[in-house]
Write a structure and sequence with these properties.
It comes from Fusarium culmorum. By secondary structure, the chain is an all-alpha fold. Helices cover 61% and strands 2% of the residues. It has a two-stranded antiparallel ribbon with strand order 1-2. The longest helix is centred in the C-terminal third of the chain and has 24 residues, at 196-219.
Length: 254
């Protein structure tokens, strides 16, 4: 594996991009991807491609970069699977030594290459962007279902402004994977064509955790964004089964 720094790796990639030819991107990225399946059986290749699409497909679809550890918790994976997959991709991803530092793309062209619909039949590692968003939305809902609750920080006075909440307590009760889920599940949900199961999942979540979600957003300092998120949700979810006062209360409270 190359030990070149991110700047040199990025310069190498950009050298191809400057030629303005898609084939050059293939020449750049195809060897990086194919090295993962050299001398592997067909079954091993299927497993590697599936793992790649979940882990790297998530990385290129995220609304904000996450660390390897947070990615593992968000996707409900084993940390060894994530680190093994990332270890093979240092030439296209900035993978910090620390498991708690964000993993980043070295250049957006890698993302474009993976999700380009024209590459669907050309490269085995092609990422279905809409499917990646759907999986992310479902994982976000799972994380929130499992973690959100009333008065999540056990405050003596519910409604306390976030500046009055101990930072370490906040990080412990609303860890990074839950923070991401709360802030971006709506983003991912709006990127897909909704199926009946998606609607069922959202209705179940809203009926159980709607106010808990808004409380978490408030504690995260995202109160100003909450009304916009609610309105965005109303554009994709049938909320007629919920009393209008339910939504109005949330808007006024937050």
């Amino acid at each position: 594996m190359s030990c070149r720094g991110p700047a040199k790796r990025l310069k190498s990639v950009l050298g191809y991009i400057d030629n303005g030819q898609a084939s050059k991107l293939d020449m750049t990225y195809s060897p990086v991807l194919e090295q993962q399946v050299v001398n592997r059986s067909e079954r091993e290749i299927r497993d590697i491609v599936e793992s790649f699409r979940l882990i790297v497909g998530t990385i290129v679809t995220l609304a904000s970069p996450l660390s390897a550890r947070t990615l593992t918790l968000l996707l409900n994976l084993d940390i060894d699977e994530v680190t093994t997959r990332l270890r093979m991709l240092h030439s296209v991803l900035e993978v910090p030594v620390s498991l708690d530092a964000p993993v980043r793309l070295l250049h957006l062209s890698f993302r474009d290459y993976l999700v380009d619909s024209e590459n669907k039949e050309k490269i085995k590692f092609w990422v279905d962007e809409k499917l990646a968003h759907r999986k992310l939305a479902k994982h976000c809902l799972r994380v929130m279902h499992n973690s959100l609750r009333e008065n999540i920080c056990s405050l003596s006075f519910p409604g306390t402004h976030r500046c009055g909440v101990d930072a370490q307590l906040l990080e412990g009760r609303i860890p990074p994977e839950l923070q991401y889920a709360c802030m971006y599940w709506v983003h991912h949900q709006t990127k897909v064509e909704l199926e009946p199961s998606d609607m069922d999942d959202m209705h179940d979540f809203l009926e159980t955790h709607f106010l808990h979600w808004l409380e978490a957003l408030s504690l995260l300092g995202r109160m100003a964004e909450s009304v916009g998120l609610i309105e965005e949700l109303q554009s994709i979810v049938d909320v007629s089964h919920l009393p209008s006062a339910f939504w109005l209360h949330a808007k006024r409270h937050f």
